[in-house]
Design brief:
This is Concanavalin A-like lectin/glucanase. Keywords: Lectin. The protein has 3 helices and 18 strands. By secondary structure, it is mainly beta. It has a domain of 247 residues: Jelly Rolls. Strands 1, 3, 4, 5, 6, 8, 13, 14, 15 and 17 form a 10-stranded mixed beta sheet that branches. It has an 8-stranded antiparallel beta sheet with strand order 2-7-16-9-10-11-12-18, with no helix packed on it. The relative contact order is 0.18.
Length: 387
């Protein structure tokens, strides 16, 4: 009996040894940490990388985001997980939410992580004096100690905004805040509630000629419509007074829409909407710099001036300032995330958070290369096509 039992035990030990010596069927994980964003080094067919180098960002400046150990996550999608490598942390339920105005919903939305979170290699501060050659005349501070309301007015409401949009725009710190010297507009979706922010700058373009630029990492997802654009200051009449879209992306299509609008979408106004679309296949992972320059003339009959749109320093669209629109020096900047609506075909985003991250926003006296370069770019840049 003892001999039989020993044989059984020996056989079992042999099987266990054989099993433990088998090679693992699970390959080692790739791409985290320190290997960059998925697809970051792939060549873009429609937007050659060597011609469109972002002006502000390198991998060394912005290390991957490292969350607190065991911090609870709140509903990020795979795309949002990629964005965490560059952008702000997700909302955390471990922290008490700030007071939420009565018009903001829901009151239970978790707030962002505290703004004093240390970083191993923080980006350079944006509130330093600009280089002399840039001739910057407005550069808002995105320091955590500066309220968002110092530079922007929060437009509020959930009335659809003329496009059957779903979101409720709030002034809650859960929907707009500063993090690591960047401005974050955050759309939050939770249990049928859609909240976001729509920011309008107190500052106008203010000059008859100049250059506006910002670096943007947008959310890319179904039902989400982020934008960085301009309208005339209040009071104004849309669309006759004009609208200028510098960055705009729909439905996570990774296509930028550079647009000029000064009419309705029917009848005689059919051609008063001009656009150039630019594919940016790495839009969800890689920040891009979007610029706009203008020259508004005086005293020339039937001529208002010229405008150029840029992506990563390259002009992508030109347009003449339409007769009857407001003077460009009276335009103000808008930054927002809309959800749903006719542009998104009625589709809505899934539960989670969607961040529009803005850095290095500024208004300058002239574009890079000065006005001779502007004139040269004007000659070789395409005009927008009617939508």
């Amino acid at each position: 009996m003892s001999s039989s039992l020993n044989k059984i035990l020996d056989k079992g030990k042999a099987k266990l040894k054989e099993y433990t010596n088998q090679p693992s069927s699970h390959p080692p994980q790739q791409g985290y940490p320190g290997q960059g964003y998925p697809g970051q080094n792939q060549q873009q067919q429609n937007y050659p990388q060597q011609q469109y180098q972002p002006q502000q960002y390198t991998g060394a400046q912005y290390p991957q985001y490292q969350p607190y150990p065991n911090a609870p996550q709140w509903g990020p999608s795979p795309q949002q997980q990629q964005q965490q490598q560059w952008g702000p942390p997700p909302p955390q339920q471990a922290f008490s939410p700030p007071p939420v105005p009565s018009h903001s919903k829901p009151s239970s939305v978790p707030p962002p992580i505290p703004q004093n979170r240390p970083m191993s290699n923080p980006p350079p501060p944006q509130n330093l004096a600009p280089a002399h050659h840039e001739s910057v005349y407005w550069k808002p501070s995105f320091d955590a100690a500066t309220p968002v309301s110092h530079n922007f007015r929060h437009e509020l409401g959930d009335h659809g905004w003329g496009n059957n949009e779903k979101q409720n725009y709030t002034d809650s710190s859960a929907n707009s805040f500063h993090h690591d010297n960047r401005l974050i507009v955050r759309g939050l979706v939770q249990n049928g509630s859609y909240t976001s922010a729509r920011l309008t700058s107190h500052q106008t373009l203010q000059r008859p000629r100049g250059f506006l630029t910002a670096t943007v990492l947008p959310p890319c997802a179904e039902g989400v419509w982020p934008a960085y654009w301009m309208l005339p200051k209040d009071p104004f009449q849309w669309p006759g007074d004009g609208e200028i879209d510098i960055f705009e992306s729909w439905q996570g299509d990774c296509i930028n829409h550079s647009c000029l609008h000064w009419g309705h979408y029917n009848g005689e106004d059919w051609n008063k909407h001009q656009v150039v679309t630019t594919p940016l296949h790495d839009m969800a992972q890689q920040p891009h710099t979007f610029g706009f320059s203008w020259i508004e003339e005086d005293g020339i009959p039937n001529w208002r001036g010229k405008m150029l749109w840029y992506i990563d320093g390259r002009p992508v669209m030109k347009g003449s300032i339409p007769q009857g629109t407001r003077r460009l020096e009276e335009y103000r900047l808008l930054i927002n995330i809309a959800m749903g609506g006719t542009v998104c075909g009625g589709k809505l985003p899934n539960d989670g958070y969607y961040d529009l991250v803005v850095s290095d926003l500024k208004m300058c006296e002239e574009p890079p290369g000065g006005w001779p370069k502007f004139e040269s770019d004007w000659q070789c840049t395409q005009e927008g096509k009617p939508i």
